[in-house]
Amino acid sequence: MFQPVVALAAIVNAAIVDVTSEAPTTVVASTESSSTSTANTRTPTRILLPVVDSTAITETLVFTRAHLTDDAFEDPRIRYKRKRINPKSRPEYCKKVMRAAMFDIHLEASSDRFGKRYEEFLNKSRSNDIPKSSIEQSQLRALIDETRRDLEKCTNEIGCIDIAKVLEVQESLLAPIRTLPTEVMCFILHLVVSSGYHHGVIELTVDAEDGEFECKSEEISLLSKVCSRWREIIHSDPSFWSNIQLSGRVITKFFLPADFRAMSTCLEEVLLRSGTAVPMCLDVCFSSRSWCESDTVGLFPILDALAEQASRWREAKLSFTGTKPHLVHMLEQVRSRTTKFPKLENLRLYATNFDVFDPGFFGTMFSHCPRLHTLELSSFRSTDLFDLRHLTTLTIYTYFGSSFAALLEKCPRLEFFKLDHSVTGSESES
């Protein structure tokens, strides 16, 4: 790297030494443009030598960074021309100026070199292209040692910053976290996601203010942007995509079908990534002020898609407020697909209409839930067939029945029970 600079400096020094009172000369290196050469397309660096006195001639040194290579001075495109300068010029002063120019040239070339090296190793870092064999690791350590030596020798502040950036990204390729097995790395990412503010929930919602569809997953989105390996781990692990929340604070006639189509498309992508075996946590919450069949027709395909995943539910919280029985529609779709919920642990069914479920509506739908320990219902009839054997927490807002004894007998492990309202004499209606 220093050879071109030394060669150019030698030419300048020789020219200055030859200065005589009769025909003093200096050397100006210039390049001839070539339309077929891509190297000459770079902007040349021009250094103006200051005027020595009122009669001296200002000279210009013209070159491009492309010529600062080991064979730069063998390039036939470079020519050297002798030009006369005023004999009153001070050779020693000119010599200092030219040497300063050579130093600036070297700094620019060095910055360009380390800039390219930084980009090279940064791309490796982003793609997790780490040295795997002992030979590759030794080669990288040798490069790191070389970069450290360059940093120690560097006396220019800007140059030190460039070299330090290269050193940092080189050392990062040998970081222990990069060699962790995928399973361990996945576990760590899960801990980070679960400890976040949103706990890794993928939220699909229709905003109440502007009526636009939004898909939010802050922790997952942030981690997947760190590097390609983390992104690959997150996108390939279904458990990152199995915690889904659908919500629409207020659904009115002003909502467009396009919002529901966007939500449906996004949901399909999330369900595809969630696989088929990983348990799912589902939270669906919609409310309305003015329900109309035409307003919310786009919501039904979304509910149908979620109903298809019923056998995977670990947590299911379904809450609808309004006059139209969207909750009933979704549960009907569930009932037509399965009556067994082997993974269900937490179930919440809520609707503002306490009589939204007709007598006998549930049938044997939830009669096989061996892991169900938490149940919350907006209404419950003493004749409804729920698997209550393993319940520890039961919340009922409206109970239809004349006695609690029969209900409590079905909950031998119950630890917490809450009841807001009861309606007696309703069992005969069933």
Automatic annotation (TrEMBL):
It comes from the Eukaryota. It comes from Gymnopus androsaceus JB14. Residues 1-21 form the signal peptide. The lineage of its organism: Eukaryota, Fungi, Dikarya, Basidiomycota, Agaricomycotina. SUPFAM superfamilies: F-box domain, RNI-like. Keywords: Signal. InterPro entries: F-box-like_dom_sf, LRR_dom_sf. Gene3D superfamilies: 1.20.1280.50, Ribonuclease Inhibitor. This is Uncharacterized protein.
